[in-house]
């Protein structure tokens, strides 16, 4: 499997499991690489560690749901992989600067990180560009 395909498979796995318990260890086990090697090649191609990619994607999905749905905040927290509303609210405020309720009331969705695509990876691989948090 080439590097681009590996990164795309990891991203697909992350995106498909954002609401599930997942970390670098479980992802490394699934793909058969050491966590250090996997995290290094992911960072070199995506511009973020696997942990940060998961965290920013979860918060971005949550932010979109806050603005576009009427779901209770606690339900959005659980849907995006947080174990409690408190943990979700702390993380959300840290990155967005607002509580989830304040953000919902503002009503404008701004993603922290859009899903990384094959196009981003191709550019990164062939131009040797580190594309942190590409939109």
From TrEMBL:
GO molecular function: DNA-binding transcription factor activity; sequence-specific DNA binding
Pfam families membership: HTH_18 (PF12833)
All copies of domain HTH araC/xylS-type, residue ranges: 8-106
SUPFAM superfamilies: Homeodomain-like (SSF46689)
Keywords (A to Z) from UniProt: DNA-binding, Transcription, Transcription regulation
Protein name as it appears in the record: AraC family transcriptional regulator
Lineage of producing organism: Bacteria, Bacillati, Bacillota, Clostridia, Eubacteriales
